[in-house]
Design goal:
Length: 225
Amino acid sequence: MNDAFRFKTHGRKQGHLTQVQRAQLEETLSRYHLEPRSERETFLRQWGRAATSGMLWVEIGFGNGDYLAHIAERHPQDAMVGVEVFLEGIASLTRKLDLAGRHNVRVVRGHAHPILRDMLPDNAIDRVIVNFPDPWPKKRHHKRRLIQPEFLDLLAMKIRPGGRLTLATDWQEYAAWMETILGAHPAFVGGPSPPPEEWIVTRFQQKGHQAGRPALHLAYERRLD
């Protein structure tokens, strides 16, 4: 087995890959995988601005990869990095990229906080996308939510001044949570927003809408000061 395929797995992150999916993922990882332990100073030489003359986008939790594959096609001059913990999603995205012949996307498997902290240089990211993060609806689980003041502190270090953070959720209470926390953070300005220009309705969003949960969007800019 390819060394790049030997991810550490914990609990349900292992997923349920078929033999075909596993073989496909093992074959494509050599083209799309970025090593999470890459040092900050080498990252842009591996990818990011050194890879293209455009912007650097990071999607955190890209699911099955529909949206990331779409924006990669719409912005071929830009570099895209997808962060995801689930093997099924990584397999789905790399298959889409292979079929479309897209070469401007790289995938890192793991949790967003250590990857952003240890791998990405400061003031390097132009766009961060967080679509439909786990809402952890029970109050005792709110501490597990991705959007927390400490995480925003980290994003403020990594997003360049003037860069953008866009978020989407189909849980109204989580949208209010995110708006409150972002509104109190000194590095970001913004609020409720129309969908981004390149937005597409994914199967995940369709399921939420059918369950009576329309998508809510937020958009913020990293302050220049």
